[in-house]
Amino acid sequence: MVGNRQLHFNNKNSFDDFGLYIEKFYIHAPTPKTFEENIPYVNGSINFDRVINFGERLYNNRNIDITLFYKSTDNIALFNSLSDIQTWLLNTLNSEIVIDGIDGFFVGKVNNISSLELLRRTGKLSLTFNCYPFRLLNYGEDIWDTFNFNLDVTEYTSYTINNSLNIEIVNRGVSVSPTIECSSDMNLIINGITFNLKAGINNIKKLKLKNGVNNILVNGNGTININFRKELI
C-alpha cells in the first residue's frame, strides 16, 4: 500500500484485508492515578503516591480514536463485509495496535464501533480502543528511517564481561524492570544497589531502569544480555 496510512490489529491490516485506510486518529494521553485518603479532623488529604509502586507514578489506560475510511465505486461491498470487519475488530481481548508512521505499538482492545456511515461511493467507521497506558518499543531496535544521528543513541543489548564493565543505558520512557540473561553468575550495581545475578534469565522487580541515563557496573565473566520494552507516554 502506497500513500494511505493503515491500521494493523489482530493479525490483519485494515487496507490490505478490507480496503480501509485511516482518515484521522487521536492518541489520548494516559491520566495518572492518584492515591489519596481523607482523614477526619485533619485539613486536606493524605497522598500515598510516593509509597506505592516503589514511589513510581501509576497510570490509567489510554484511549485511541480512529476513523477508518473506505472509497470505492461500490460501497455496498463494504456494507456486505461489515460482519467480517466487526469480527476482526471485536473478536479479541487484547492485541498489538500498530499505526503506520508511529514508532512502536500499543496493546489494547476495541471498546466501541460506530454505525457504518455510508456516503456516495465512500464509507466511514469510527473506533475507540482502550489501551495499556504506554506506547511500547523494544530496546535495541534502532529504526533507521527516523534515526537522528545528532540526538539519538545506538542501543546495544549484549555485552561481553571480562572481570568488570561499565554500561550506559538510556531509557526514554518510564521506569521499567529489564530481563537480564547471563552466561554465568554475576553481580550488577545500579544507583548504589548491588543485585546478584544467576546464570540464565533474571527478572528482578526492584531492579529499575529509570528515565534518562542509567550507569551500570557489571562484575563477572561471560556475556550478559539486557532487554526491556521502552514504555513511552
Properties at a glance:
233 residues; mainly beta; Elongation Factor Tu (Ef-tu), domain 3; Jelly Rolls; six-stranded antiparallel β-sheet
Write the H/E string, N to C.
EEHEEEEHHEEEEEEEEEEEE
What is the distance, rounded to the nearest whole angstrom, between the alpha carbons of the first and last residues?
A: 29 Å
**What characteristic shape results from the CA principal axes?**
flat
Question: Percent of residues in helical segments?
Answer: under 10%
Total of DSSP H or I helical runs spanning 4+ residues: 3
- Give the uncertain stretches in residue-range form: 146-152
- In angstroms, what is the radius of gyration? 23 Å
The CATH topology of the largest domain is Elongation Factor Tu (Ef-tu), domain 3
Question: Can you give a write-up of this model?
Answer:
The protein has 233 residues and is mainly beta. The chain folds into two domains: 7-133, Elongation Factor Tu (Ef-tu), domain 3; 158-232, Jelly Rolls, CATH 2.60.120. The chain is built from three helices and 18 strands. The strands form four sheets. Strands 1, 2, 3, 6, 7, 8, 9 and 10 form an eight-stranded antiparallel beta sheet that branches. Strands 12, 13, 14, 15, 16 and 17 form a six-stranded antiparallel beta sheet that branches. The radius of gyration is 23 Å and the shape is flat. The chain starts with 6 loop residues before the first strand and ends with a strand. This is Phage tail protein. It comes from Clostridium thermobutyricum DSM 4928.
